[in-house]
Design goal:
With 248 residues, the protein is an alpha/beta fold. The protein has 2 domains: 111 residues, Cobalt-precorrin-4 Transmethylase, domain 1; 123 residues, Methyltransferase, Cobalt-precorrin-4 Transmethylase, Domain 2 (2-Layer Sandwich). 31% of the residues lie in helices and 24% in strands. It contains 9 helices and 13 strands. The strands form 3 sheets. It has a 5-stranded parallel sheet, sandwiched between helices. Helix 4 crosses helix 5 and helix 7 runs parallel beside helix 8. It is globular, with a radius of gyration of 20 Å. The model has no long low-confidence stretch (mean pLDDT 96).
């Protein structure tokens, strides 16, 4: 059996009980080295552990599928939610390509995604419709990402920005901010959350026209408000509309 396990943001208290059970029941645990390090070592005791570094996604998913096809119970771990920019999709693709969908049981354990964790720390910025966009162009053409940024900003979605900047990808965030700024006021609140619920956590809010890309890395999530988002006692608030319908 292949179980794709979401670890959440990294704090053990925020990992679903179902994820803990899946790790406990697994014979083999597979994942990126950084994600394996998020797991309590006691939960890995007595298990076969296979890990790879960055860019090793296909290698580790194939290893997980191979072990699952042998009848082992495999936990493929991901941070955040495994179905959001993570390994659930690749696992299904490889099972499909190898003709194993009918013979290898498959399950996904959901978790708290980065935008959920970041929103909780910022207050209530995702109370209305929102869009999530990754700025990583390793698998998606940048032209496609630009179209999505422009469409989401024009539609006045609150926007959660994943993978904003890395050591090699330095131009994407400034360009994204330029596109979004065509449709947002300069004073639009932006939440910048680094390492949510992990050691070194940083949470701050700035104006859209004051975002400094140098303050952002791959472990940072940005939440950019829409036209109604405002700061509320130091928190970000995107009203759902209760104040327009009811006497609060």
């Amino acid at each position: 059996m292949l179980v794709v396990v979401s670890l959440g943001p990294g704090d053990a208290a925020l990992m679903a009980p179902a994820a803990s059970r899946a790790l406990k029941d697994a014979d083999t645990v597979v994942g990126y080295k950084g994600y394996i390090n998020l797991v309590d070592p006691a939960m890995l005791s007595g298990k076969e552990v296979f890990s790879t570094g960055m860019m090793g996604e296909v290698e580790r998913v194939r290893a997980a599928v191979k072990q699952a096809a042998k009848g082992r119970r495999v936990a493929l771990v991901c941070s955040g939610d495994a179905g959001i920019y993570a390994m659930a999709g690749l696992a299904l693709e490889i099972l499909e390509v190898e003709g194993l969908l009918d013979s290898v049981p498959f399950e996904v354990i959901p978790g708290i995604a980065a935008f959920n964790a970041s929103a909780a720390l910022l207050g209530a910025p995702l109370m209305h419709d929102f869009a999530s966009v990754s700025l990583s162009d390793l698998l998606t053409p940048w032209e496609t990402i630009e179209r999505r940024l422009d469409a989401a900003a024009a539609a006045d979605f609150v926007m959660a920005i994943y993978n904003p900047r890395s050591k090699k990808r330095r131009s994407q965030l400034p360009r994204a901010l330029e596109i979004i700024s065509r449709h947002r006021e300069p004073h639009t609140p932006v939440g910048i959350v680094g390492r949510a619920f992990r050691p070194g956590q940083q949470v701050r809010t700035v104006r859209l026209d004051s975002v400094n890309p140098e303050d952002v890395d791959m472990q940072t999530t940005l939440i950019i408000g829409n036209s109604s988002t405002r700061l509320c006692g130091g928190y970000m608030l995107t009203p759902r509309g209760y104040g327009d319908k009811y006497q609060l």
